[in-house]
Amino acid sequence: MRRTPVTSTTLRSVGYNEKDKILQLEFTSGEVYEYDKVPISTYKKLMKAGSLGRFFNDEIKDIYTFCQLKRKRY
User: Fewer Cβ atoms within 10 A, N terminus or C terminus of the chain?
Assistant: First the structure.
């Protein structure tokens, strides 16, 4: 999934698959998580939020099921 770089102290990039309703978040730590069944409206609000980290904590974290993706090893 392609992710868009964002300006945030919490997130490095954000991707969204509209067909499958999967939100992919790359954190500044380098960890990548996928959140399942996220409505496109939530994705759009995240991308417009003044604070992406605050929006994540308030509207995504502990609300949607997620999994952590494995890091690529080079």
Answer: C
Q: Decide if 25 contacts 9 (C-beta within 8 A).
A: no
Residue 37 near residue 64, CB atoms below 8 Å: yes
Give me the chain's average pLDDT, please. Answer: 95
Helix axes 40-48, 52-59, angle to 10 degrees: 150
Average the pLDDT over 7-22 and give the result: 97
Answer yes or no: are the C-beta atoms of 25 and 11 closer than 8 Å: yes
DSSP 8-state assignment for residue 62: T
- Name the β-bridge partners of 27: 11
Tens-digit pLDDT profile for residues 36-53: 999 999 999 999 999 999
**Which pTM value belongs to this model?**
0.92
